[in-house]
Amino acid sequence: MRMWKWLVIVLAGVVTVGVGISEVFGQRGGVFRASRDHPAIAYSTGDVVNAVEALNQSILAGDVRLTFEGRSGYLRSVLDALEVPVESQVAVFSPTSNQDELIKLDSPRAIYFNDSVAVGWVRDAALLEVAAHDRQQGVVFYALPQQSEAAPQFGRNDRCLACHLSWDTLGVPGLQVLSMAPLPDDPNAYASGFVSDHRSRLEDRWGGWYVTGSHGDTAHMGNVAVFNVEDPTATFGLVPPVIDSLDGQFDMDGYLSPYSDVVALMVLNHQTHMTNLITRIGWETRRIEFRDDGQSIDDPRFQDVLEEAAIEFVDYLLFIDEAPVPDDVSGMSGFAKMFSTQGPYDEQGRSLREVGLNGRLFRYPCSYMIYSEAFEALPVLAKNLIYKRMWQVLSGQLSEGPYSKYTRVERMSVVEILRQTKSDLPDYFLETVH
After folding, report:
1. CA-to-CA distance for 428 and 98, rounded, in angstroms?
2. What are the respective helix, strand and coil percentages of the chain, to the nearest 5?
């Protein structure tokens, strides 16, 4: 087996990295340092509440029946049951999965996602893989055998944690998207690349991925081969070919969509790291509240841990360090329109889900993940710290350095939307925005 296969592993379409891969620009914050089976967490044995567990119960009760269809197997039926839109499809062709032998440039892995679930499908593979963001337990991994049965069940697969629980996932079971650099035709070549999120330049994203839609005159790393490349540096900084559709790129048998939408990819870039941040601050809070029956909460050492986690969380939630989104970026799958219309809306019809692409991904700079079940389930202490920091930024109390990027009108728009769509905001969110 080539050496690179031990270095990069992809599961459920979201990528984690092993030895030899560095996070782009060294963007790394705090991490959860305790065990996943700390008594306050009990990841391996504690109760889980997520969409996949609910689907398993519905199948056993006879309320849901999954249908097996040709080479796609249970894929379409699972997406419908989990309310995952087909428009979210993105395709990765770097063979960096447990099912890597089946993944090629002409047979990429298809990824579908919503706010809490990612589904990974490989054509002719034995398993359909799903990663679900649990209300409290971080990301939980499952697999469904791709063979027709009367009442198929998703089985939990904690072996995925060998790669999906690392410093790069903030020390919690999590998700990431990797951009892979091209490799020469050399059996001793090491995989290289970086984890990317909305802070990463487009020039550094999507190595090993198909990208359909317009990216204007901006370079990115997608749509070019990443293995057996004669000159791995030849395409760096160059604008790759624009692909309107996957039709004509490879045999589409089994795929549910002819797109690997650029907007869907950008949303996935944002959502993966936001998912990990939600889990990390929740776990930190639960661990500290458990210590000495809560007596450690007032310890300055632990206060610093939680305040640092809240700052990192809010900076990402409010897109403080978002890389500029170039003009003329647009998808063709209908994902942007579909995603933008999911709400919730304020009285003026505004939503945090509205895709902007006017220099940034979303029109209003606050993540829609603030509505997620995992955010809602955060401990009160964690949410209080998050809301306090959010108000410092949105009210204008913090106005220096990176916090000067938004105008009062932009900050006020976010506050007004939150006032009408979040029922648990502290009273100070009704105060004046300066």
Report:
1. 49
2. 35, 15, 50
Helix (H, G, I), strand (E, B) or coil at 132: strand
Q: Is residue 83 within 8 Å of residue 169, measured between CB atoms?
A: no
CA-CA distances (angstroms) from residue 354 to 102, 124, 357?
36, 36, 10
> Cβ–Cβ contacts within 10 Å for residue 416, how many?
17
* Nearest in space to 202 (alpha carbons), one of 313, 317, 325, 316: 325
Phi-psi region of 248 (alpha: psi -120 to 50; beta: other; left: phi over 0): left
> Which residues are registered as beta bridge partners of 118?
113, 131
Dihedral angle, C-alpha 88, 121, 132, 44, nearest 10 °: -160
Task: For residues 322 and 357, give the distance between their C-alpha atoms in angstroms, rounded to a whole number.
Answer: 12
The DSSP element (H or E) to which 414 belongs, if any, is helix 408-421
Q: What is the pLDDT along the chain (434 residues), one digit of tens a residue?
A: 333 333 333 333 343 333 333 334 345 569 999 999 999 999 999 999 999 999 999 999 999 999 999 999 999 999 999 999 999 999 999 876 778 889 999 999 999 999 999 999 999 999 999 999 999 999 999 999 999 999 999 999 988 888 789 888 999 999 999 898 888 877 777 667 788 999 999 999 999 999 999 988 889 999 998 888 888 887 788 888 889 999 999 999 999 999 999 999 999 999 999 999 999 999 999 999 998 777 777 788 888 999 999 999 999 999 999 999 988 899 999 999 999 999 999 999 999 999 999 899 999 999 999 999 999 999 999 999 999 999 999 999 999 999 999 999 999 999 999 999 999 999 999 999 99
Output the DSSP codes for 358-387: SSSSBSSSS-GGGGSHHHHTS-HHHHHHHH
Distance, CA of 419 to CA of 394 (rounded, Å): 12
Determine the residue type at 250: F
Tell me the CA end-to-end span of the chain in Å, nearest whole number.
60
In three-state secondary structure terms, 432 is coil
Distance CA 64, CA 307 (A): 44
Single-letter code of the amino acid located at 279:
T
Sheet with 109-113: strands ordered across: 90-92, 109-113, 117-121, 127-133, 139-145, 155-156
Residue 275 makes CB contacts below 8 A (sequence gap 6+) with: 133, 139, 174, 175, 369, 374
